[in-house]
Amino acid sequence: MELGDLQGLVAVPSLSDPHFMQAHYLATVSGLNRINKRLVVRTIDTGGAGPISGIATATNMIRSEWAETVAIIASDSVLSLNSREFANRADGSVEGADLPTPRIPHGYDMYAQWHMKTYGLTREQLAMVPVLMSAMASRHPGALCRTPYTLDEVLGARKVAPVTSLLECARRADGAVALIVSSERHYKRTFGRKLDHTSPVVVGVGEASGPLYPPANPADISPADFSCERAAKFAYRSAQLGPKDINFFGLYDCFPICFIRALEAVGICGEGEGGKYVEAAYNDMIRNGGKLDVQRFPINTHGGLQCFGAPWEVPAMYNVVEAVAQLAGAACERQIFPKPKRALVYGNGGIFSASSVAILGDGV
Ligand code: MLC
Q1: Measuring CA to CA, which residue among 313, 314, 323, 315 is closest to residue 345?
Q2: In 10 A of CB 304, how many CB atoms?
Q3: End-to-end distance of the chain based on CA atoms, in angstroms?
Q4: Ligand 1 site: residues with CB under 6 angstroms?
Q5: In degrees rounded to 5, what are phi and psi of residue 305?
Q6: 309-345 pLDDT, tens digit each
Q7: What pLDDT, in 10s, does the model give residues 6-23?
Q8: What is the ipTM of this complex?
Q9: Rounded Cα–Cα distance for residues 15 and 17 (Å)
Q10: How far apart are alpha carbons 172 and 313 in whole angstroms?
Q11: Which of 45, 52, 88, 169 for mutating ligand 1's site (highest number of atoms within 8 Å of CB)?
Q12: Which residue, by CA, sits nearest to atom 32 of ligand 1?
């Protein structure tokens, strides 16, 4: 494809370099608007859910025949911002929240404490999440974390909030991903062949919303505040599939509680059982000499936000990139066998404020 072949552009906002109507800005500075006067452009602001909401939007543009090829762009460079500036902008994104600074980690921490009280999640189970994710990341050449953590290292790291240490936070990073979604007709015309087992397709999408930040009183938190269950239900329904049909999961994990809730929401385990599921996977890994088996734990094989890296609203796109690699059988030493036929990717925005789930298939 050439730049001028693009008929649609979807972009998510950037924290480090914000622009009014980010997608229009990108289309203008790249010259895309001049090359294609019929370009359809949209900025999506659902926070970290943005890339998956972008897939929903691109798919709708194609179904409505506004465009045959749509690029989804996510980019940010929050590692290049100095720490104080990052902290100010990140705190500012949840303006009005009655939370200590850093507000975002404290917001998730409040939900983690709620889960501990409600379902018996333990502090160790939370800390096992980055241990598992670091084992995954150590196999990916593009990940920031290249050495697996031990449980003691995670628990002993600098405390950021009451039940959150530094190693349990989304890891600030610079990064960008562009994804092109096209119609089946365009695919056949461009590649001269039908969709096959190496061509990923979008088979269903679901979205749902929650509040921008937690209630001032933790007693007011309820399971209905988490929108991921609803988004997953809509995605499964539109794909006419269920959790057992999925062979790879790319779950948003900005903090361990987000990952644990996601395990429950997408149906990998029951409500309130995410901590036990993580502990079982951790024990399995320890019994296996510290090697995490991707066949038994086909989740975030790239290492997720805590260990692969988290450039603000980009990271859900890394879930998609990893899903595409797994579906194409191109995930190298991280490859799940037999090659997955269906993948679920989840993006979460704000502090459990937006959920977008997409189900991808392998084109056969
Ligand atoms: C930081 N470091 C880490 C790390 N985070 N190392 C491993 N794993 C992590 N997760 C390291 C840095 O590389 C650096 O190392 C040192 O710790 C200090 O990092 P810092 O970021 O400069 O420190 P500080 O200013 O004190 O801030 C720490 C922090 C901050 C945890 C408060 O990084 C933070 O707020 N992180 C969370 C980011 C966040 O909230 N993202 C959005 C998630 S919500 P060295 O060697 O250079 O000293 C979401 C939804 C949405 O995703 O909509 O966006």
Answers
A1: 323
A2: 33
A3: 23
A4: 47-48, 83, 87, 90, 102, 104-105, 160, 166-167, 169-172, 254, 306, 310, 312-313, 348-350
A5: -70, -35
A6: 999 999 999 999 999 999 999 999 999 999 999 999 9
A7: 999 999 999 999 999 999
A8: 0.96
A9: 6
A10: 11
A11: 169
A12: 102
